[in-house]
């Protein structure tokens, strides 16, 4: 039987991760619009075709960024699952090479996938990919203290709390405090 190459960079039992493409715009924007109640006030992903195009272009072209879509795998005939449906996204921003070899993660689940463990699996795959083929050493997540879901996801993937940064990021019209969570390649070994 011939080997068929996967369209995913990494796969788990229920999801695979792949890079963003311009062709993902319509589904991504539709998922963002469906998920506004879930995302607010923490997250403001692009919700128009033009905003998605600019966002995807940065993730595709900028070497200091890497964007990954977390996609549901086919759950089998009659399951009601759509093969390849986008469940969420994980971006590695501010990638620094040289002696630092690090990046900062940002992520979001979409409403239809929330609470099903798909983002836990997807984030774990991205971390493995970052420490494997990307050869990074450290990843950091900055989460607002009240964002219990984001903090729980970071903790469940082995990130440790390293500190607190007052007025760190400008979000929704104000400077917001953040907790800093990190993981290193040695912690995952």
What would you say this structure looks like, in words?
The structure is a single chain. The chain is α+β, with helices and mostly antiparallel strands. The protein has a domain at 10-135: 3-Layer(aba) Sandwich (Aminopeptidase), CATH 3.40.630.30. It contains six helices and eight strands; from the N terminus they run E-E-H-H-H-E-E-E-H-E-H-E-E-H. It has helices at residues 25-34, 36-39, 49-61, 118-131, 148-156, 185-188; strands spanning 10-11, 15-19, 66-72, 86-96, 102-109, 138-143, 160-171, 174-184. Strands 1-2-3-4-5-6-8-7 form an eight-stranded mixed β-sheet, sandwiched between helices. Strand 1 (10-11) and strand 2 form a beta hairpin. Helix 1 packs across helix 3. The protein is globular, with a radius of gyration of 16 Å. The relative contact order is 0.15.
Which characteristics define this entry?
single chain; 189 residues; alpha+beta; Aminopeptidase; 8-stranded mixed β-sheet; 6 helices; 33% strand; globular
């Amino acid at each position: 039987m011939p080997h068929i190459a996967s369209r995913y960079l990494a796969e788990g039992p229920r999801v695979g991760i792949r890079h963003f493409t311009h062709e993902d715009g319509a589904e991504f924007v539709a998922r963002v619009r469906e998920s506004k109640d879930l995302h607010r006030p923490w997250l403001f992903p692009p919700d128009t075709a033009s905003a998605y195009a600019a966002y995807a272009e940065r993730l595709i072209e900028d070497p200091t960024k890497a964007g990954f879509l977390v996609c549901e795998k086919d759950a089998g005939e009659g399951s009601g699952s759509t093969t390849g449906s986008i469940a969420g996204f994980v971006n590695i921003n501010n990638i620094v090479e040289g002696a630092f070899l690090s990046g900062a993660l940002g992520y979001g689940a979409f409403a239809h996938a929330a609470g099903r463990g798909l983002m836990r699996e997807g984030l774990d795959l991205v971390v493995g990919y970052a420490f494997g083929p990307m050869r990074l050493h450290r990843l950091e997540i900055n989460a607002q203290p009240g964002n219990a879901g984001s903090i729980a996801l970071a903790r469940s993937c082995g990130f440790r709390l390293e500190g607190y940064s007052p007025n760190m990021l400008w979000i929704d019209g104000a400077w917001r405090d953040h907790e800093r969570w990190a993981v290193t390649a040695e912690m995952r070994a």
